[in-house]
Specification:
alpha/beta, 130 residues, 48% helix, Rossmann fold
Length: 130
């Protein structure tokens, strides 16, 4: 089994990583933790390095338990939701775990909803953590 976790640095995303750890132990699964960054002129090399360093730290508890855990920082012109769905399709992911948070209707309209996109477009089961 392969599990994908969408990670954005938030507390909710850390809870999603914890849920993936439990699922990996229970099902003997491989885990992929992905941070999806949208390419833009304001995206700095420093921000990318910071994201990669955080992923390195998240990987350690998996390794201690003997769980295969791959970390990825993906920078593309796609939205984070599109990036996660494409990653899931390309890697035969069987479960995606993502954090969800409340947003107003205007917030969803202006900023979009990564979770909503993933839930509706994913080729596999999506587990949400709140």
């Amino acid at each position: 089994m392969k599990i994908l976790v969408g990670y954005d640095g938030s507390k909710i995303a850390e809870d999603a990583v914890a849920k993936a750890h439990k699922h990996a132990l229970a099902f003997g699964a491989e885990v992929f933790i992905v941070t999806a960054l949208e390419q833009s002129p304001s995206l700095s090399k420093d921000a990318i390095e910071k994201a990669e360093n955080k992923l390195d730290k998240l990987q350690r508890p998996f390794k201690k338990k003997g769980i295969t855990c791959e970390i990825n920082t993906v920078v593309s012109y796609e939205s984070p939701g599109e990036t996660l769905v494409h990653f899931a399709k390309e890697n035969d992911i069987e479960e995606i775990i993502i954090g969800v948070r409340r947003r107003s209707k205007v917030g969803k309209l202006v900023f979009g909803s990564t979770a909503q996109y993933v839930i509706l477009q994913a080729p596999c089961t999506v587990t949400t953590v709140k």
